[in-house]
Specification:
Helix content: 40-55%
Number of helices: 12
Oligomer: single chain
Number of domains: 2
Strand order of the largest sheet: 1-2-3
Largest sheet: 3 strands, antiparallel
C-alpha cells in the first residue's frame, strides 16, 4: 500500500460545496435513523475530516474515491497526532473514523448518490475500550441493591443493561409493553438506526424484571398513567439511570469508572469468554457490522 510522504495533520472540514451538502445530508440521515446524540454530534465532524483529506489529495466527489484513497487515509490516521494529549490517536478512535466512512458509503448507497466500497480495516488490538467489570464485580452490584421498590427497580435496570446488553437510550425508551414475559423476550423498538430487535429475557433477568413489574413499578406509578418501563419516584420515565448505577457502584466498593455502557461491554465480554460465537453476540447487541463486535476479542485476549 502506498504511504504518502507528508506530515500528517488535522483537517477542519471540507470546502467543496458538494461535500458540504453531503455532510449536511449525512448529519440529517443520522438524526432520522435515531443514532445516539453523541454519534449525531461526532460522526459528521469525523466525516468532515475525511472529506477535507480527500480534497487536499485531489478527490472531489464520492465517485472518485478509490481503495488507494482509503488506504492512504488509514495511514494518515495512524500518523495523525492527538490534539489533546499528544502522541498518536488510539486504534479505537481510528476504528470509529473507519466506521464513519463505512456509514457514509451506506448513506450514499441508500440515498442513490453514488457510493464506494470500503475494504480497508484495522489489525491488532484496540485501546481505550473502557472498563469491563468482572463477574464478581457484577455480583457485588446486585448485592448492593436494596429490598425496597428502588432495589426492585435497580435489579430490573441491571437485568436490562447487563443481562440484556442494552444501550443507554434503548433502556430508557422501553415501555412496559415491550417486556414479553410469556415469550421470554424484550422488544427493543428504538435501537440504533431504528433497527428493532428481540433480546432474550431468561433466568434471573426475567425474574428481576417480573418482580419489578409486579411489585415495584405499580408503587412508583401511584395511579399515574405512564407507558415507560423504568419510572422515577413521581411515576415519570426514568431519564438518568446512570445516577442509580453510580450509587450501586459506590455501595459495592468498585473503584473502576463505571457507566451504563460498561455493563454492555461486560456482558459481551462474559458471553465471549463463555464460548458464544461472535455472530450470536453481534445479533444480541444489535451491532450493524461484525467489526464492532470483534473489539471484544481484543479485550478477552488481554485478560
Amino acid at each position: 500500500m502506498k504511504v504518502e510522504k507528508r506530515e500528517a495533520g488535522n483537517f477542519a472540514g471540507p470546502k467543496n460545496p458538494l461535500y458540504l451538502r453531503l455532510q449536511a445530508g449525512f448529519s440529517e440521515w443520522l438524526r432520522i435513523l435515531n443514532f445516539e446524540p453523541t454519534s449525531q454530534r461526532d460522526m459528521p465532524k469525523m466525516l468532515g475530516e475525511f472529506m477535507a483529506y480527500l480534497e487536499t489529495n485531489g478527490c472531489h466527489s464520492p465517485e472518485s474515491i478509490t481503495e488507494t484513497h482509503l488506504g492512504n487515509y488509514l495511514n494518515h490516521l495512524y500518523l495523525r497526532p492527538n490534539k489533546r494529549r499528544g502522541g498518536a490517536i488510539s486504534k479505537n478512535y481510528i476504528r470509529k473514523h473507519l466506521q464513519v466512512v463505512r456509514k457514509f458509503a451506506r448513506y450514499l448507497a441508500e440515498s442513490g448518490q453514488g457510493s464506494f466500497t470500503v475494504n480497508v480495516g484495522l489489525t491488532g488490538k484496540s485501546s481505550n475500550l473502557g472498563e469491563v467489570l468482572t463477574r464478581q464485580e457484577i455480583n457485588r452490584l446486585y448485592k448492593a441493591t436494596g429490598d425496597d421498590v428502588y432495589g426492585l427497580r435497580d435489579r430490573a435496570m441491571l437485568a436490562l443493561y447487563y443481562g440484556c446488553g442494552l444501550r443507554k437510550n434503548e433502556g430508557i425508551a422501553l415501555d412496559a409493553g415491550d417486556i414479553l414475559l410469556d415469550k421470554g423476550l424484550v422488544l427493543v423498538r428504538k435501537g440504533k438506526g431504528y433497527r428493532a430487535r428481540f433480546v432474550p429475557l431468561t433466568g434471573r433477568n426475567k425474574a428481576d424484571v417480573e418482580a419489578y413489574l409486579l411489585h415495584g413499578r405499580p408503587h412508583l406509578l401511584n395511579g399515574r398513567n405512564e407507558n415507560a418501563l423504568l419510572v422515577n419516584r413521581v411515576g415519570r420515565r426514568l431519564r438518568q439511570p446512570l445516577c442509580r448505577l453510580v450509587r450501586l457502584k459506590a455501595a459495592a466498593g468498585i473503584g473502576k469508572a463505571v457507566g451504563l455502557h460498561t455493563l454492555r461491554h461486560s456482558i459481551a465480554t462474559h458471553l465471549l469468554e463463555s464460548g458464544m460465537g461472535l455472530e450470536h453476540i453481534q445479533r444480541f447487541l444489535g451491532h450493524e457490522s461484525l467489526e464492532s463486535t470483534q473489539i471484544y476479542t481484543h479485550i478477552t485476549d488481554g485478560l
